[in-house]
Amino acid sequence: MTNTYLNLHKPEAIRLLRELIKAKKFFRQTEADKKVLLAETLIHLNRIYGIETGLSFQRQFFDFSGYGSYSINDRVIHLPRVSLVTFLHEFSHALFNQKNRKNTEPQARSWSLELFKKASPKSYDRAVEKGILLYTLESETDNANVSSENK
After folding, report:
1. Domain parsing of the chain, residue ranges
2. What is the reported pTM?
3. Which of 36, 48, 113, 143 is deepest in the core (most CB within 10 A)?
């Protein structure tokens, strides 16, 4: 899938996530420690990309999906449970919205998954093998191909 949004992966952001996953052993931390690490990571991502976004680990009153969301009005990422990929997905919505770029679900999925894979290809591949990702880069490519064939 050719996606100009992937150009927004700044080397500093890739290094930050690589450190989070490898040096800080994000996936081996307790739930409470993961929340702290994501909050710290958000501070750095906001600085890297020049945006202002908050983080809440509470489900929004209207969100019954159990997945994360980004509130445009208060500029807050809401995560009802800790997930690095969902965090990155919602951060991409914040980034695209605050930079006045087109902001669709497929673009947010591609951006977040590609950043995760660039930061830690092994962690990405393990997540795909375990089937714990709702979407994969491969499924996004397949969906894009089907959509373009149906036009």
Report:
1. 4-149
2. 0.86
3. 113
- Of the candidates 128, 78, 93, the one whose C-alpha atom is nearest the C-alpha of residue 5 is 93
∠ Cα 111 24 32 (to 5°): 90
Q: How far apart are CA 112 and CA 121, in angstroms?
A: 13
SS3 letters for the chain?
Answer: CCCHHHHHCCHHHHHHHHHHHHHCCHHHCCHHHHHHHHHHHHHHHHHHHCCCCEEECCCCCCCCCCCCEEECCCCEEECCCCCHHHHHHHHHHHHHHHCCCCCCHHHHHHHHHHHHHHHCHHHHHHHHHHCCCCCCHHHHHHHHHHHHHCC
Whole-number Å distance between alpha carbons of 49 and 42: 10
Q: For 2, phi and psi rounded to 5 degrees?
A: -85, 125
Q: Cβ(147)–Cβ(1) under 8 Å?
A: no
